[in-house]
Automatic annotation (TrEMBL):
A GO CC term attached to the entry: anaphase-promoting complex
PANTHER family, sorted: ANAPHASE-PROMOTING COMPLEX 10, ANAPHASE-PROMOTING COMPLEX SUBUNIT 10
InterPro entries attached to this UniProt entry: APC10/Doc1 (IPR016901), APC_su10/DOC_dom (IPR004939), Galactose-bd-like_sf (IPR008979)
Assigned protein family: Belongs to the APC10 family.
Keyword entries, A-Z: Cell cycle, Cell division, Mitosis, Ubl conjugation pathway
Segments forming domain DOC: 1-116
Protein name: Anaphase-promoting complex subunit 10
GO biological process, one term: protein K11-linked ubiquitination
Pfam family, one: ANAPC10
Originating species: Astatotilapia calliptera
Domain of life per record: Eukaryota
Length: 116
């Protein structure tokens, strides 16, 4: 999603989209996963249904790759995780990397989560 100004943490991305504060640009990208179980892939990851989800099926690291066809500025990335529902499947860390191709990615953000 792109946004013209700083968005407060915990803001509802759907509400921000309805008010015109942000614009969803994920549909302009090609999405791929390092692995997934049948029926738990990209479509479930992106379907806006909190009851469906991506489930990896392989060794770590588990990767979500989002590739845009042309240079694209992304100012906000929203990720929904629910520790109470997912427990051990909730990510403990997330790394956001950018680059011109898979071989020159540079980490721009690293988040380490603590389970409550």
């Amino acid at each position: 999603m792109a946004t013209p100004s700083k968005t407060p943490p915990g803001a509802d991305p759907k509400q921000l989209e309805r008010t015109g504060t942000v614009r969803e640009i994920g549909s302009q990208a090609v999405w791929s996963l390092s692995s997934c179980k049948p029926g738990f892939g990209v479509d479930q990851l992106r379907d806006d249904n909190l009851e469906t989800y991506w489930q990896s099926d392989g060794s770590q690291p588990h990767l979500v790759n989002i590739q845009f066809r042309r240079r694209t500025t992304v100012k906000m990335l929203c990720i929904y995780a629910d520790y109470k529902s997912d427990e051990s499947y909730t990510p403990s860390k997330i790394s956001v990397r950018v680059g011109n191709n898979f071989h020159n990615l540079q980490e721009i953000r690293f988040v380490l989560f603590c389970c409550v």
